[in-house]
Design goal:
This is HutD protein. It comes from Albidovulum denitrificans. By secondary structure, the chain is mainly β. The chain has two domains: 11-110, Jelly Rolls, CATH 2.60.120; 115-184, Sandwich (Jelly Rolls). It has no helices and 19 strands. Strand 2 and strand 3 form a beta hairpin. The mean pLDDT is 96.
Length: 185
């Protein structure tokens, strides 16, 4: 069954290392901790990232001044909505090329339990978007306000998320862009 998570209902919480804040939109946990986690972080300047040993991560910048991730000493300038995968135990920090706050979308999966994937998709008004597979975590993050029918019937704002452990089918009421997040066992 698909579930709608409102970005506005997810309060910001400190990062594990206390250097920034994030809004956890959704997570799947077991007795060993997090299996899959989807969050949006706010970056306010030069910040070290928290380390998550045994975790595969994918990050994509949503908005704000250009971000540069330095992963194990190698700089990676981020392009908007272009996913960058990296290992959670890597020594990672971020800087901004300009003033302001940047937001990034994070997908984290426990290595060996799930394989993460992230991509940007567009849908025309009235066209059905059907993605995912049985047993996989599938999520659609709205990039702009849009009304959808199908898996859920709702008016979504930017940052709202539809998530299921199956397939998702939605039909937007206008041209829309989403970020598709998948975690396959």
């Amino acid at each position: 069954m698909a579930r709608l998570i409102r970005h506005a209902d997810c309060p910001p919480v400190p990062w594990k290392n206390g250097a920034g804040t994030t809004r956890e939109l959704w997570a799947l946990r077991d007795a060993g901790g997090v299996l899959v986690r989807i969050s949006i972080a706010e970056i306010t300047g030069a910040q070290p990232f928290s380390e998550f040993p045994g975790t595969d991560r994918i990050i994509a910048q949503l908005d704000g001044p250009p971000m540069v991730l330095t992963i194990d000493g190698i700089a990676h300038p981020l392009s908007p909505l272009t996913p960058l995968p990296f290992r959670g135990e890597a020594k990672t920090s971020c800087t901004l090329n300009g003033p302001g706050i940047a937001r990034d979308l994070n997908l984290m999966t426990r290595r060996g339990a799930y394989r993460p994937a992230m991509r940007w998709i567009e849908a025309g008004a009235g066209s059905e978007v059907e993605v995912g597979e049985a047993g996989a975590v599938t999520a659609l993050l709205a990039l702009d306000p849009v009304g959808v029918t199908g898996a859920v019937r709702a008016a979504m704002t930017a940052g709202d998320l539809i998530v299921t452990q199956d397939r998702i089918g939605v039909t937007p009421d206008r041209n829309a862009a989403f970020v598709l997040l998948e975690a396959r066992p």
